[in-house]
Amino acid sequence: MLSLVLFVVCFLSLAHAQTPGRYPKSCYEAKSWNRTNSNHVIIRPELAPEPFVVLCDMDIDEGGWTYILNRYDGSQNFSKNWDSYKAGFGHIAGEFWLGLEKIYQLVALEINELRVELTFEGEDQRRDLYTSFGIGDEKSGYVLHLLDPVIFDATDCMSLAGGMKFSTIDKDQDLNSTHNCAEIFEAGWWFRNCTPCGLPTGVYLQESIGNDDAHRRNIRLKEASIMIRSAAQELKLPKYYKQPMPERKEP
Q1: E strands, the chain, where?
Q2: How far apart are CA 46 and CA 195, in angstroms?
Q3: Sign (positive/negative) of CA torsion 172, 174, 179, 185?
Q4: Buried b (16+ CB within 10 A) or exposed e, 66-101
Q5: Using an 8 Å Cβ cutoff, are 68 and 58 in contact?
Q6: Does rRNA processing appear among the keywords (predicted)?
Q7: How far apart are CA 10 and CA 16, in angstroms?
């Protein structure tokens, strides 16, 4: 209850501080308005009928990132139906999924970069970076448009998802003819064929199997975040990064 009260106070203070009738379209634009602290920001993408609150990261790789998923303690259940994944669920001050419709509104009119950061139990943080990310509208099944990553060391769940429609426990849109992958993994995602991987929306700390380039290993998801940012910001790669892009094949 206290966290909810604090969030309402934060929301009202943000609304009061915002320029009347004018909102940034994303965290990237908010940064250009000198909003340089990683925090909650009210935005309104061009296609959004109403403004909404998002979590911004203004520090990583020069900032301007908008969170579309954040997980760190297992407090939020991600086994949800289609309507929930469309609208979003959870709490912006805790664990949440922003919502497919809001994600579509954010990425529909411009190219966005995608950043996936995962931490598995007993391991350091891993990340994937993609130079181009987008999804279609609801009529398309929120089909995923994705280019190959420029950094790839977190999970194959995203790379295998390109071109796929979104599936949930009550809406099966994967390519598996006998099973609903969303039911198997108890999570919504752009599933292809129920391939085991380190799923960002998967059951918290439940043992699963992930690909680590050359071999499979047992993993337990501990933390996950997915962020997007306008591709107008130049993506800076770590100087040490020289690893070639591994070939990914669907089993």
Answers
A1: 40-43, 52-57, 65-71, 89-90, 96-97, 112-120, 125-135, 144-146, 149-152, 207-212, 215-230
A2: 36
A3: negative
A4: bbbbbbeeeebebbbebebbbebbbebbebbbbbbb
A5: no
A6: no
A7: 10
CB 110 within 8 A of CB 133: no
Which of 4-8, 87-91, 217-221, 229-233 shows the lowest mean pLDDT across its residues?
4-8
Domains of the chain as residue ranges with CATH: 2-159+223-230 (3.90.215.10)
pLDDT of residue 90 exceeding 50: yes
Q: pLDDT tens digit string along 7-62?
A: 444 444 444 445 546 899 999 999 999 988 999 999 999 999 999 999 999 999 99
> Where do the H-state alpha helices sit in the chain?
2-17, 27-32, 82-87, 100-107, 181-185
